[in-house]
Amino acid sequence: MPVPLYQAKAEFFRMLGHPVRIRVLELLGEGPKPVRDLLADIGIEASSLSQQLAVLRRAGIVVSTREGTTVTYALAGPDVADLMRAARRILTEMLAGQTVLLDALLDVPDPQRPPADGA
Fold first, then answer.
1. What global pTM score does this model have?
2. 119 or 76: whose pLDDT is higher?
């Protein structure tokens, strides 16, 4: 029996649900990068990065090429970069909404707090 589409989507988002994987995808959205550059930009152990790259590679989200001793990773297609940009827009809108709420809360006087001017 085939997996329902909603379940496949949930698995996809679960696979993306690691901060290192998200950071790798953001960096690769700028263009292909050798592993040494990813290591320098992310600042984690090589074995940890390798593990996360393997997850992304198995999912078909990134591809790798080898030239001599240099392994370079790239996004498998432009849709992943689009997804990262969409996530940034959604988060920006969510945080902007929270800022509006915070501003509104700060504008309402707290009856248990003395005025800021000491009066």
1. 0.78
2. 76
- Interhelix angle 19-28/46-58, rounded to 10 degrees, is 80
Average pLDDT score over residue span 50-78 = 96
Token pair, residue 38, equals 């990813």
Q: What pLDDT does residue 105 have?
A: 82
Using DSSP, state whether 34 is helix, strand or coil. Answer: strand
Listed residue (61, 35, 60) closest to 48, CA to CA: 35
Q: Which residue has the tokens 């390798």?
A: 50
Asked if 39 contacts 73 with a C-beta cutoff of 8 angstroms, the reply is: no
Angle between the N-to-C axes of helices 35-42 and 46-58, in degrees from 0 to 180, rounded to the nearest 10: 120
Nearest Cα to 48, choosing from 20, 76, 15? 20
- Residues 29-50 as b or e (16 or more Cβ within 10 Å = b): eeeebebeebbeebebeeeebe
Q: Report how far residue 96's alpha carbon sits from residue 61's, in angstroms, rounded to the nearest whole number.
A: 30
